[in-house]
Amino acid sequence: MKFLLVFDFDHTIIDENSDTWIVKCAPERKLPNxxxxxxxxxxxxxxxxxxxxxxxxxxxxxxxMKRIMTTIPFTAGMIxxxxxxxxxxxxxxxxxxxxSNTVFIDWILxxxxxxxxxxxxxxxxxAFSSTGYLTVQHFHxxxxxxxxxxxxxxxxxxxxxxxxxxxxxxxxxxxxxxDGGNDLCPVMFxxxxxxxxxxxxxxxxxxxxxxxxxxxxxxxxxxxxxSAIDIMSYLKLLIKE
Length: 241
Known about the structure:
Layout: E1 3-7, H1 18-21, H2 33-36, H3 44-57, H4 62-69, H5 78-87, E2 92-101, H6 102-112, E3 120-124, E4 126-128, E5 134-136, H7 153-166, E6 173-178, H8 184-189, E7 195-198, H9 203-213, E8 221-222, H10 228-240
Parallel strand pairs: 1-2, 1-6, 2-3, 6-7, 7-8
Antiparallel strand pairs: 4-5
Keywords: Hydrolase, Magnesium, Metal-binding
Organism: Drymodes brunneopygia
Binding site for substrate: 19, 99
């Protein structure tokens, strides 16, 4: 009996968007209008690439970025939840699927001592260049019309489950915890026995209820959370059963 917990990162594990938080490193803690207005829908990764060039051009170094990033608050109850999962790792496999990047997630989890809770992190690869600039790349290529160009979370989840099956691992239930529009694709992949946990008041919850109104509801059960303590209560019930 093993459960798979799939977490989004921004506005789910942390209570902010890591990509917009980094702007606190910029001169006067803001970006020039031209750069801010250069974002095109579906091309967030490219936009962040330009933001990182701007920060590098303005002499913002790796240690300063790291210092700022590790001040991001975790979502209410999340520290308790991750502690609980860490204590029960024999029952839970735990992955992150996020549109953030490897550098930010690594910094934040390691600073808080939570990197061992997660078995794998699927996110955009990032690294510092020889000149000290942070660079970010697309996670993969895909053909899903519903998802941003750089990342289809549904594809990531499906490929992860296929790989686990090859290793002889199948899950009693998948619990998907997220908040954003790009979390809908993997939620629609979930089966009847699985559960989607959208964050209350965020895009994912609205999209799921829209589907139900259009009489094409998702197959899985849906349980809304506002604090990670809600998620922990559910997991405690799950392992008692």
